[in-house]
Sequence to fold (786 residues):
Amino acid sequence: MSSAGSPQRSVHDALLVECAWEVANKVGGIYTVIKTKAPVTCQEYGDRYLLIGPLSYKSAPMEVDAIDWEAPPKEALSNTDKALRDTLASMRDRGVKFLYGRWLIEGGPKVLLFDTGSVWNRLDEWKTDLWNLAGIPSPPNDTETNETILLGYLVAWFLGEFSSRERSRAIIAHFHEWQVGLAIPLCRKRHIDVTTIFTTHATLLGRYLCAGSVDFYNNLAYFDVDHEAGKRGIYHRYCIERSSAHCADVFTTVSHITAYESEHLLKRKPDGVLPNGLNVTKFSAMHEFQNLHALSKQKINDFVRGHFYGHYDFDLDNTLYFFTAGRYEYRNKGVDMFIESLARLNYRLQQMGTKMTVVAFIIMPAATHSYTIEALKGQAVTKQLRDTVTEIQNRIGARLFERTARYTGESGTEVPDAASLLSDEDRILLKRRVFALRRNSLPPVTTHNMADDAADPILNQIRRVQLFNRGTDRVKIIFHPEFLNANNPILGLDYEEFVRGCHLGVFPSYYEPWGYTPAECTVMGVPSITTNLSGFGCYMDELIENSDDYGIYIVDRRQKSVEDSVNQLADQMVSFCTKTRRQRINQRNRTERLSDLLDWKKLGLEYAKARQLALRRAYPDSFTDDDFDFESGQVRVPRPMSAPGSPRFLSGMMTPGDLGTLTEEMQSLGTSDYMGAQTWESMMSRNNKNDEEEDAYPFPLVMKKRGGSSSSGLASGQTTPGGVKSAGKQKVLNEEDLQRADEALSHHTNGGVDTNGGVDTNGGVDTNGGVDTNGGVDTNGGTIGR
Fold:
């Protein structure tokens, strides 16, 4: 906030200082926020952008390229650089150690990392000052709070000295979370001339209360926050967080659900919501990310063979991979609900008699001793078998070539006898490998030896629902208590590779202020299940109509009971399991198309709004009513006009990635029927000629609406959308028409058979004219009402 009597600072080329505990220091999700947002922020601010955090001697050498800030001659520096240099020199001369350099990420932002240990001798002095200044207590043995106090005072010290030297430009100081937020009340009390923004990514008390099995969201208004914080031994931390929120010029959260929580727990209504984004890499062709899915899935297949084959086998071509991942917060992350729903999914798949197998992964770090012998042995013998088969294959190839090359012209010897190509030595070696693969026990549930197996909540829940990976179970479960990396001897994939290879991410969180895991799934084209208690789920639910069709399934954990929520989650997983391969491909296409909603190029605008609001509040005289104001909001994504990979009687528009309706298939629509294939000029000339309504205007990658269409989702025997008019009336299809259409389409293109040569698992025919699971034609010629 601007101090009295200070010269007016320029708000049009302001400096941005962003502070977080996870700057070049990976601990949790805020690291991802700062790192992925940096390129957009650097593009906007350039060298006027500085990141501040604690110095970690373990990670900093790999993350930061140090800069010799004293090397350039002073006359070659700008006023801002001179002020920064003088500030750093002053702090160094008074015993403060730090690392100044560029973060080795895209954008290369400047970073300043303070060594809190270098000022440890000032801790008692600063604790006393904090009590006298703000009445915030600080127990002696809380190491994290001690580090927070030291970093907060160092940041306030830096901002005070820097702002006193750089007086021409406004300085925006943006703080993420309470660990660095202590500098905000210090800046306010000392009248340091900066404008501040505080963003909470989760409230301290909220996380503790949710983990304690209380009905959190329905009782938010009734908690005695001081009592609850004191009872949990976090009152001093809560005081720092609350003072940061109240002293900031602008207070923001990452989602509306966290804003509601903050209003009741921190007693200040947030000024806005800053959703978390990602750096979205769009592929030049739609099939590219589908190819990546196939490649990554093959690597997961290799692991599954080693883990299960030898105990028993199942068809990997008829197997789906589900997963959940994140910090080990058993209840907050919804792992309890996930395992319970898997047990119900297992029962329902068994009752359906399907051959579909689901392998569910739980990727959460926990205390372990080592890998299990069974897991290591399974991967080793499978690799040994694969290597042996490759060797024998090469020898057979050599024999086949040699014998065909020595063909003498004798009749019947053109092609060698197959049995003669496999030598006795090869047979013996192959038998040894196969016998080594055989195992008599059940496949292990976990890949590691747990430090406290009997007390582990996840393993105890698995025991309770009895998901023991039996041969009759349609759902297999694998608990991998370690984050993934490519050097893992058991599951050697990076997290991104693993996600791309899976079919569905399941994140039924009870407390999730944002939720990067389902967002990452969306960007990679992987459908996911989230909840209306997660920031991501609320955000997507607001923007997308019928989000299930786009691969964003949202479980209601706020209005429904636990039992109903578990059943809803199980229903969603059963629904996903009954989709055909074509439907899953179409759904992945739709999911990937949502990635633009999560791109920092769009969501970074929300941060720009917060910074402008902070400047307006600190320097109101620098703005006029004519100054630029940001327009609000994203456009709501409409419901797709057909279910994934399934024809439906719906009027209106369709995306080219979807299958057409039966009527449109019979009419043989061509490429020209898609607006994306037409030029603006041709569209406008047609509009002027036919004087069509607004539906005829160009809309990228969607099919134009046909004139005279008034139907919206009709059952058989009713008027079809865009049907042929006869004698002024729309044509009505009877049962015979539908049977003829079904017969015609069954011979169309691939004969109506799935591209894999298989039949729709629901009993219908897939691809270009199959059964509409929501309201199409029955294989017996009857109709299915929706």
Remarks:
- Confidence is low (pLDDT under 50) at residues 643-732, 748-786.
- The radius of gyration is 31 Å.
- The first helix runs from residue 29 to 45.
- DSSP finds 26 helices and 19 strands in the chain.
